[in-house]
Design brief:
4 strands; mainly beta; 62% strand; flat; 4-stranded antiparallel beta sheet; TATA box binding Protein, subunit D, domain 2
Length: 69
């Protein structure tokens, strides 16, 4: 499984690619959680290998009564 992560301000290229084996995925209350094994992160010049990564992502839209005008 291959994924692409955008917009990391610390990355020189602005894009980091990563590849790994999807162990589990979960979606609950508009929040995704992914657990990956044997993950490689790559940018233009670096390769970083890790055993396990957990990624949690949610919708960035502001909804409901908590918004301010």
């Amino acid at each position: 499984t291959a994924f692409q992560l955008y917009g990391n301000s610390n990355s020189r290229s602005g894009t980091v690619n990563f590849r790994g084996s999807l162990h589990t995925n979960r979606f609950c209350d508009a929040v995704w959680a992914f657990a990956l094994n044997d993950v490689e992160f790559r940018d233009m010049t670096e390769l970083i290998k890790v055993d396990k990564v957990k990624i949690v992502a949610c919708d960035g839209k502001i909804t409901g009564s908590n918004t301010t005008d």
